[in-house]
Amino acid sequence: MQKKNSNTSARSRVLVLVDESNVGSSVRTVGRGLDWIKLRDFLAGPNTGRELIEMVVYAGLPPAMPIWQEERDKKNKFMQWLRSNGFMVVTKDGSPAEEGRYKANVDVMMAIDALELSVEMQPDVVILVTGDTDFAYLAIKLRRRGIRVEVASVSQNLGNILRSAANEVIDLAQLFRTFEMIQEPAPARAMPPRQNLQQGRPQPQRPPNQQQPQQQRRPRRAFPQRQSVTDR
To answer: Which of 5, 56, 116, 201 has a CA-to-CA distance to 31 between 20 and 30 Å?
Structure first.
């Protein structure tokens, strides 16, 4: 067995692979926004005694179609922010789905990369940031290669299949509670229905076929305005 350098003997080399859609959904369920820098430091930061090789984020993009362009541009801008902050990003173009949604499954890409990178980078530990049970077999395959596998997710939502496939489960629930709350937009104030305006003045509605009087009538006595009005 090759002797490790004495300066790094206590520092495990860690490769972190993130299912962006899965972890993003988990943190939103508790009303928080995902703090990527905190997540990275929590898993393999300087205070963990570990050496981070790479943190790879796998994300699906909205379809390259005009109807999705605004959302796609926004997602690409976020991906660029991740890259500029030291994350490795792998994306996949989505395809339209039902009810105005899109699907972009990155599971296969993430699984293939995990096997290839484990050979190329030779990590001591691979952390899978996901709660998707589809990665259970991947965890077993990595362990067969002598790599320690840890799954980072909200423990209470994690299925037994993935839990039992990993060496350890890192519960992210407590970390999520330190993230900032999502600021929900204030609901729009309901405005009273507008009257039909003609030349800047309100015109009373008349029943069908009712003709406008030719002579000017005496003004009627004003009554208090009612809260709701139905057509007569």
So the answer is: 56
